[in-house]
Design goal:
The protein is 14% helix and 19% strand. It is an alpha/beta fold. The chain has a 31-stranded mixed β-sheet, with helices on one face. Strands 36-38-40-42-44-46-52-54-56-58-59 form an eleven-stranded parallel β-sheet, with no helix packed on it.
Length: 995
């Protein structure tokens, strides 16, 4: 929590705390009434103690003897001797707050014996685990009518919040806040709160209140409220109409983490002009700030971060926010010039603002020179924007800065330093700076010791992924003790700079620095106490120390170097180890003792022998990659391992069957055993791995039928069973592979919880780059093995090629709309190609070659607009080859190769005419059809008629003799026709009368 926020909360608490205590702050050992505690109350406390089943911190160890007023956490009234305060908050809040099971917490239940403490005013049991048998808040607490302070926060209760708490009419402080990691409590009606007429503090953070629409009206009926925390309550909206706001004393309102999908300016809270703290982060608010923001002159903290919208605009009235100390508008996609935004903040704000977070937006432009006006700024974060240009020298005037984060922008040019003649001290003048992150920009130039000369408070620095030359004297000593230092993708090679040995840092990243040669003699002793070390992607040679088990590493990354020799024993407390892409030989150590190891990557070495049984001791192992080695033998049966999500053992000489212990790893998402010697049947329990995304078993010796259970893998994105000896039919109901039936806009990455973000697989505290996934998935598609690197959408596919499958292609396969690669080649499939194959709109590569397919090629193939590779060769297909659309663009150099080996096919592009068609007539007819244009035909017809009519008219108009002759001829013809018709009509009349 920011220091200013802490100060604000302390001031609020101080202002209202006297109302909660009412004498409880008097020394516990003084009793004006002249005796120890009241026996009945002592018995009630001892009964409460009996309900506590675990007390590892000895919080209740002092609960002995007659005078309970001297017990830890118990306070008595000086006047009456009654117990008025019971404070048993878990002293170790940090671990518990993150959802870990805190061994320091009190476990057990809240005993009803507390009802005997009839004068109790203050009850704090927070951050413990006093759940009782049903895990709910005890209803009897609503009978403790003298309570003024009740804090049950952090206790992982479930079930409904009891409305009986509304009976506590004297209550001024109520905290039921929950850790959002638990299912937690809920309420469908909070009108009972209106009975708490003098309530000043209310926190129901993490309590599910979804469906309660009129919650603002309920709170508006409690005018004394000063603090309201309804964060993470799943509230649906905050735009209810409140004609009159009664909350005139409200100082803090936290509504972050809800689901307000409406305009930012429509919220009722803008009327609360007394607010000092307004938290609206992690909702889905959009639009611009209202002008009424200008009325909130007391506002010190404004947090509207992480609303995930693209149209939020900072156009509200900011001129009167002279009390503002913290402004957080990060992660909103806000557009605009950063200088314009900062200029909209008045001078009075610039002198008070302490924290400014603009990260993860779309701000452009350069940092303005008037950044120096923000003289009290301690935290500045402008990361993940589109800023350009240099860092202004005036930034060096912000001597209060403790944290500066400018990573991931488009900043260019050199950082001013003395070597290039730049006078401003800039970064080096920030004497209070603790954290500096300039990584992932385009900075150039040289970093010298003068940049660090005055950074005596610096603890964290990250200059990674720039074009900086780290040029420090060999005898340079850092002015402070760094906790972490990131120099990845800088220029400090080719030799290890001697000044590294004096960093004494807990974390060092010097990856991708073109370092060469062996490790210096001082290296491992200098960093043996570091927790994090990344030296990957260099050109370091030589071997590692034989014994590294005494070192402190928790994360060690040595991948992509030229290291050789045996694999040493690593620290027992290590959690992540990567030695991939080296030349390590011999075997995996047989004495693996790292019980906390989560990630182990040894791929692409020359490691031989067997996978040791000791690997089964790695019970926390979630990611194991031993691919591209020369391992042999069977995989050990590790029935104590349940957490594996990524198992990558491809391209070795492993044999045997798939170990049965894997069926217990139901969270597995990636299984790669390809290019080994595994044999036998594919186990039916494979269907239990319901979260599996990639199943790669190609090029082994598996046989028998493909189990039907494979159709239960609804999240499966890629299935490779190629190059085995599978027989029988392709399983029906492959449409159950629902991930392949839904068109995906872009399958760019995979999260452990099947979530998508940023082109990489995000593992818990470990990231697997998409390029590595591409290397694992060398896809057999489009007639060749291709590596697509980060284009993971190409990994939506099925490859069953090179087996002995028989029967027909299941018709329901055509429902796999998201399928991109489909390869059934080199089997013994028969029957026809499904007519609805044209429904597979994402298909880019289709290979059905070398089977026994018969019948005609479905005309629907021409509707596959994404198709770029088609191979139907060496089957028994017949009839006319369909054409049009995408089919006419495939393999234009030699299109017939797609259909070779099908003697019954005719028509283009093969050189065989279809029966009954004359070549010349057919071609002329086709040509005439192609050349015939009805619009042109009718236009010419009308034009010709008009031209002819006009020529006759002109001739009669200008040639008198022709005109006379024409009308004479017309009269003659008229007379002849008239006589003929008259005679015929008379003759017809006589015949009719005669009859």
């Amino acid at each position: 929590m920011p220091p200013t926020t802490n100060l604000l909360l302390i001031l609020i608490s101080i202002s209202i705390f006297p109302f909660f205590t009412n004498g409880a702050l008097q020394p516990q050992h003084q009793h004006a009434h002249g005796g120890g505690c009241i026996p009945a109350e002592r018995a009630a406390l001892l009964s409460f103690k009996e309900g506590v089943t675990s007390n590892n911190t000895n919080l209740l160890a002092s609960w002995q003897g007659q005078d309970c007023c001297r017990w830890r956490g118990v306070s008595c009234s000086n006047r009456t001797g009654h117990v008025i305060k019971l404070r048993l908050r878990n002293p170790n809040v940090t671990l518990y707050a993150y959802g870990d099971e805190d061994a320091n917490a009190l476990f057990g239940e809240i005993s009803p014996s507390l009802l005997s403490l009839k004068h109790l005013e203050h009850l704090d049991l927070s951050m413990n685990c006093l759940l009782g048998p049903d895990g709910q808040i005890p209803h009897f607490l609503g009978s403790m009518v003298n309570l003024r302070y009740l804090n049950l926060s952090g206790i992982p209760f479930n079930g409904r919040v009891p409305s009986q708490l509304g009976n506590l009419s004297k209550l001024q402080y109520l905290d039921l806040g929950q850790d959002t990691g638990y299912p937690g409590m809920y309420s469908t009606d909070i009108t009972w709160l209106t009975k708490l007429h003098i309530l000043k503090f209310l926190s129901m953070s993490g309590v599910t209140l979804s469906g309660i629409v009129e919650w603002p009206h309920t709170l508006n009926m409690i005018p004394p409220l000063r603090v309201i925390d309804l964060s993470w309550c799943q509230l649906d909206s905050a735009n209810q109409s409140l004609p009159h706001l009664n909350l005139t004393k409200l100082e803090k309102l936290d509504l972050s983490g809800n689901d307000f999908e409406h305009s930012l300016g429509s919220g009722w809270f803008w009327k609360a002009t007394s607010l000092k703290y307004l938290g609206l982060g992690e909702n889905r608010l959009s639009g611009q700030l209202p002008d009424t923001l200008g009325n909130m002159t007391y506002l010190q903290v404004l947090d509207i971060s992480d609303n995930g919208t693209t149209d939020m605009r900072m156009t509200g009235n900011l001129e009167n926010l002279c009390s503002l100390e913290i402004l957080d508008i990060s992660i909103n996609g806000i557009n605009g010039d950063i200088a314009v935004l900062m200029k909209s903040l008045p001078q009075c704000t610039r002198k008070k603002l302490q924290q400014l977070d603009l990260a993860s937006n779309n701000f452009t432009g350069t940092l303005p020179n008037f950044i120096s006006d923000f003289t009290r700024l301690s935290i500045l974060s402008i990361s993940y924007n589109s800023l350009v240009g240099p860092i202004p020298p005036q930034l060096g005037n912000l001597t209060c800065l403790t944290s500066l984060c400018i990573y991931c922008n488009g900043l260019t040019e050199s950082i001013p330093n003395h070597l290039n003649g730049s006078v401003p001290i800039e970064i080096g003048s920030l004497i209070n700076l603790i954290s500096l992150d300039l990584s992932n920009n385009r900075f150039t130039g040289v970093i010298t010791e003068e940049h660090f000369a005055n950074l005596t408070s610096l603890k964290e620095i990250d200059l990674s992924s720039n074009n900086l030359n780290i040029l420090l004297n060999s005898d340079w000593r850092p002015p402070s003790t760094l906790e972490s230092a990131g120099f990845a993708s800088c220029q400090m090679g080719p030799l290890f700079p001697p000044w590294l040995q004096r960093l004494k840092t807990n974390g060092l990243d010097i990856s991708s620095n073109a370092l060469k040669g062996k490790f210096p003699d001082w290296f491992w002793s200098a960093f043996s106490h570091a927790n994090y070390l990344n030296i990957s992607n260099n050109q370091i040679s030589g071997s590692l120390p034989t014994h590294m088990d005494g070192m402190a590493f928790k994360e060690l990354y040595l991948g992509s170097n030229r290291l050789t020799g045996p694999i040493p024993t690593f620290p027992t407390n290590i959690t992540k180890l990567d030695i991939s892409n080296n030349t390590f030989s011999e075997t995996i150590p047989s004495n693996l003792e790292a019980s906390q190891l989560e990630v182990l990557s040894m791929h692409s070495n020359q490691i031989g022998g067997y996978i040791p049984e000791s690997i089964c001791k790695l019970q926390q192992l979630a990611y194991l990659d031993l691919s591209n080695n020369i391992l042999e033998g069977e995989i050990p049966q590790c029935f104590d391992i349940f957490n594996i999500e990524f198992l990558i053992l491809g391209n070795n000489s492993l044999s045997g069957k798939i170990p049965t212990f894997l069926q217990n790893n139901t969270d597995m998402k990636f299984l790669d055993l390809a290019w080994n010697k595994f044999s036998g049947r594919l186990p039916t329990w494979i269907g239990k791995l319901v979260n599996l995304r990639f199943l790669i078993l190609g090029h082994n010796k598996f046989s028998d039928n493909i189990p039907v259970g494979i159709t239960k893998l609804g999240y499966l994105q890629y299935l490779d069973l190629s190059g085995n000896s599978f027989s029988g039919a392709i399983p029906w109901h492959l449409s159950n592979l629902t991930f392949m039936t839904t068109l995906q806009e872009e399958l760019t990455d995979m999260h452990v919880d099947v979530e998508y973000e940023r082109n990489m697989i995000v593992f818990p505290r470990y990231t697997i780059g998409a390029d590595r996934l591409g290397q694992i998935l060398s896809v057999n598609t489009k007639g060749q093995h291709l590596i697509y690197h980060n284009q993971l959408k190409y990994f939506v596919g099925i490859d069953l090629s090179c087996n002995s499958l028989t029967g027909e292609i299941p018709k329901d396969l055509t429902s796999l709309d998201a399928l991109v690669n489909f390869n059934l080649s080199s089997n013994q499939l028969s029957g026809q190609i499904p007519n609805m194959i044209g429904a597979m709109q994402s298909l880019e590569s289709l290979d059905l070659s070398r089977n026994n397919l018969s019948g005609e090629i479905p005309s629907s193939l021409s509707s596959l607009t994404s198709l770029s590779y088609l191979n139907l060769s060496y089957n028994s297909l017949s009839g006319r080859i369909p054409s049009g659309h995408q089919l006419d663009t495939l393999n234009t150099e030699n299109p017939s190769i797609m259909y070779i080996g099908n003697n019954g096919l005719c028509g283009p592009p093969v050189h065989k005419n279809c029966p009954g068609n004359d070549p010349s007539t057919s071609s002329d007819l086709e040509r005439s059809k192609e050349e015939f244009d009805p619009l042109t035909f009718y236009f010419g017809l009308v034009l010709g008629f008009l031209m002819g009519l006009w020529m006759v008219f002109c001739a009669l108009l200008f040639k008198k003799t022709w005109r006379v002759a024409y009308f004479r001829l017309f009269d003659k013809v008229y007379d002849q026709v008239y006589v003929f018709v008259a005679v015929k009509w008379a003759s017809f009349g006589k015949n009719t009368d005669a009859e």
